[in-house]
Structure formats: structure tokens, C-alpha cells
Amino acid sequence: MFLTLVGVAPNPALSYTKVITAPDFSDSHSNTAKAALKSKCESARTLGIVNVSQSERLVIYDGIVSLPLVQSVTAILMGRTEHGCYIDKYGQPTRNCKCVRWEIKAKSFSYRHPHLLLFGEDFIDIRHAPTGQFKQVVEAKNIRLLESVGIGGWKGSLYLAWRGAHNDTQGQSWALVEGLETAPLETPMTPPRPTVDLPPAMPIPNLSSFFDSAAS
Description:
Elements: E1 3-8, E2 17-22, H1 32-41, E3 44-51, E4 56-64, H2 69-77, E5 83-88, E6 99-101, E7 108-112, E8 115-119, E9 123-128, E10 133-139, E11 144-148, E12 158-168, E13 171-178, H3 208-215
Antiparallel strand pairs: 1-2, 3-4, 4-5, 5-6, 7-8, 8-9, 9-10, 11-12, 12-13
């Protein structure tokens, strides 16, 4: 599946609307790499798109959508898995039409620049969005993204829930979690020792006369 982006002129006096399909595979018939990427994307459900830089966007897919049995088997054999692909601001695939493969089947996502968080049923896959590099995986049970304020990708609260360990006569426990970005621990600086004004050194007395008189 593909995204349809509608652009509207920022100046009301210039009334025009431009529709862009992203990714744009209009010339895939003459481009083998683009045709292969199109085959992956057309059988997957689009979760969304995020800006990873001023010139590039990342389209996020969750995997194979409902297809006839024969097509589903073919898609699996062709390696159509959960993935993302990079496009420019015009919808054209970039990076030689390569895609980034997720480690999980994502149901939802949240973007906190520069990190992309992909939420699956029992795992959270955390990626460096500009490169697609894997950073961390968080394991829990029945993960649910509750609220992701600031979906634009910079700041905002991130709340999720997952199933707790206790399940007794009082019911199933659930954990309510706020996602916070980790920061490196800084070693506290040792405060300087306080300076003490020492008294001036006392002169050493001349004891030679004392020993001479004692010897006589």
C-alpha cells in the first residue's frame, strides 16, 4: 500500500493542490531495484511516515496485509517482511531503493528524533531513524501504545501499558509506563578540598650551647 500526500499552496492567493503518491513507483517498469521495492511495499500496510532529515523521509510498513493464499505464500518466499524505506520530498525512493527490515511485526510507532520506536505485541524495536541502525529491544507482554503526544517527532509525552506478572483472584495486573529517553550517567566532579591558612613555621632554636653546657 502507498501513501497519498496532498500539498496545498501556503499562500491562499495561489490556489493549487498537488497530489503525490509515496513512494513514487511510476517508472518502476524500467528500474529493477525500484520494481523489487514496489513488490515489497504493495503487499504491506503503511503505518506512517516521518521526517528523518530536511531532505529525506522514512515510510514505515508493518508487514503483509490480507492477500489471497497463493499471493501470501509468494510474498513470504520473496522476503516481504516488516520494513521501512527512505524517500525524498518528492516521493522518490532513495538509497538505491534499499529497505530497512524490522525485527518485529509493528502495530504502531512513535518518533522521537532521532529514534524510531516500533511497538509489537511483546517487543519494542528501537532504531536510529536516519540510518535504520538497530539500537535496543524492550521485551514485555501485550504492549499497548496509549498516547504519543508530539507525534511530529521532537518532544512530548509517551505512555504505554503492558501486562504485569501478577494474575490471581484479584485480576490481571498491568503496568503503566512513561517512556523517557535515557541519558549517559555523568561522574560527579570531586569538590576541591577547602584551603586552610596554616600558621607560619616556627624557627628551630640553636641547641648547641645547651649541649655544651651539659657536657661541662
